[in-house]
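User: Predict the full complex structure for these chains.
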Amino acid sequence: MALNNIWVFAQAANGAPTSATLELLTKARSLSSNVTAFIAGSGADAAALGEYGATAVLAVEIGKNLPGVAIASALKSVIDGGNTPDLIMFPQNTEGRDIMSRLSVKLDKTVITNNIDITDSGDGVTVVTPIFGGNTLVSTTFTGAGPFLAAFRPKSFAAESAGGAAAAVTAVSVPDLGATGSAQVVAVHVEATTGPKLDEANIVVAGGRGLGEAPSFAMVEELATLLKGAPGASRAIVDAGWVPYSYQVGQTGKVVKPTIYIAAGISGATQHMVGMKGSKNIIAINKDKEAPIFGVADLGIVGDVHKVLPQIIAALKAR
Amino acid sequence: MGSVSVTMSLMNVIVCVKQIPDPAAPGALDGATNTLKRDGKLILDDSDAYGVEMALQLVDKAGGGEVSLISMAPNGETAGLRTALAMGASKAVLVSDPALQGSDALTTAKILAAAVQRLGGADLVIGATESSDGYTGTVPEQMAELLGLPSVTFAKKVSVEGGALKVDRQTEAGYDEVTCALPALISVTAGVVEPRYPSFKGIMAAKSKPVEEVTAADLNVTPVGWAGAGQKISNVAQAEARQAGEVIEDDGETFGKIVGFLENLKVI
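Assistant: Here is the predicted structure of the two-chain assembly.
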């Protein structure tokens, strides 16, 4: 089937579209000339969204509602009004997942998450999903009629400007949510960060359980700072409360593709590997020589991070 | 002298638990069906132990009520459910039906929502943000929509005050404080609470706790399995393998190798 009408969930950070948004718009416009971006709030950057391929923008004023139920309900009203997309693309993150989940029930359509590619053969729309830590790629074809709902991991597509004109913005209101609208945001907390963003850094130094205890993470941060990179973490030490969630690399955290990824005391669980396997160069330090991380490392050191990290730090400081 | 009033509010919580193949064992696909092999021993998904613990603590704090479990498994497996019952849950509904194989997330949500209704609903339904084996990550929010409930996903701190939920909801940038009326559904992150280990007494008691086994037909959910999935697997391929490089034992000097590696890439 032809994809005549594609919608993309657009998000903004500091007033500009996120990189994941621009990646999805770039892919969407390669599949259809009719691409609509939908976004929470009235501050859509119509020029940037248009530049990357959006021909229209639906701006949903969600107020204090959580985006999932509010945006899904607004989109349903647009679809009921006769504007029916063939495909709706979401970034694989908290908000994307919530909206697509609510919408899948409202439309009674399946959802396919965690994808890294999409193709339209004319006979069917197929998405590609990595499983088992990215060792196996599963292609899944949507059956029946659209809209097809799919979420894509960040960095699956390269964002490229199309030089398009600013998209026309239409405001969409949220219908009465009834009981489902009782969840309200009463305060927003932003955790302070310094240095480059984890998912944009050229060098990432990540620590895991092999660090032994929370204070040892300071070594990871010091090395990251010396290399002008960003510190990252495995899920194990985020769950243990050593560092905030914003540090997490992996399936449930950030996807990173830096020039150099240094894994310190990380064994390489599949949950972690899917978030960093795309790094150009991987250096691993781990005590266990059987650790799966050595299977993807360009340089693997079987050793104690408590010895090796301070030595690297001292050597860099001495330069 | 003022009067002393004791308010005892009962809190009934239903927790969605998944029984999964041991994550320590390498996963495999069934060659005939391209579904994840789930024929070995199944265990309680670690991700769900947090929800069970959260539920037990909320009921405890409310001063009464009970924790019930719902689960869906193709082969009548109860090992993972018994673990959660041993932690302190009271009873379980297990939806077990060979017809469920190949079900997508939406069908799974329909089954679990019907199981919630079979238990007569609850003040709070708890799920994990995603399972450790399939990680579609949409089922709890789909259940909320099917049940007409408000929901707060990615909850990293939860309390009930004055009959309403207070949740710290994890976001990309930090967290949001969210309030929500009950009944509601939440999905909790790993690490939200520290799951207890079942005691010997708990393990013994769990053996006699009621587990009701039902089929998809009992719950009036059709179609299920591949027929209801809205998707079909069209290909399975091996990804291009990343070649392992040099692995060396640390002799006290290997840090120089790393520094040299960084120099070669001109980042220092």
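DSSP finds six helices and 13 strands in chain B.
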